[in-house]
Design goal:
By secondary structure, the protein is an all-alpha fold. The protein is 56% helix and 0% strand. It has one domain.
Length: 140
Amino acid sequence: MNLSTLEKAIAGICATERRYAPQAYYFLHEGLIKTLAEVQEKEKTVRHISGAELADGLRRHALESFGPLAKTVLNRWGVHATRDFGEMVFALLDAGLIGKTDEDHLDDFNDLYDFDQALLGPFRPRPKRAPAKPRATRKT
């Protein structure tokens, strides 16, 4: 896809739909391409991906791109839940930038994971394990 076509489409979407920053759409588009490439590499075939697969790919893309700030960045762009990814996907569909199947629905993106757990959890300290108790020795 021509970058200027993508830029124009995102500018048009953002002119009427102000919930999400333009950067969120660019992030989603990058994550979509990356997720499709990962699926193609793993399965050695080109196929359509589900909303759940895309949302998981976007989670990984956010963690790789922004590390511990992933949730902060996405929230700043207006993205607070996986449903927001779906809203943006369907805006890109309406703009003719991506395709879908008859089985694809906005509800496919509902509550797929909790943003706190998915985006902050990997960076939270893990509880330390209690030191092992020494084993009693048997006297014979």
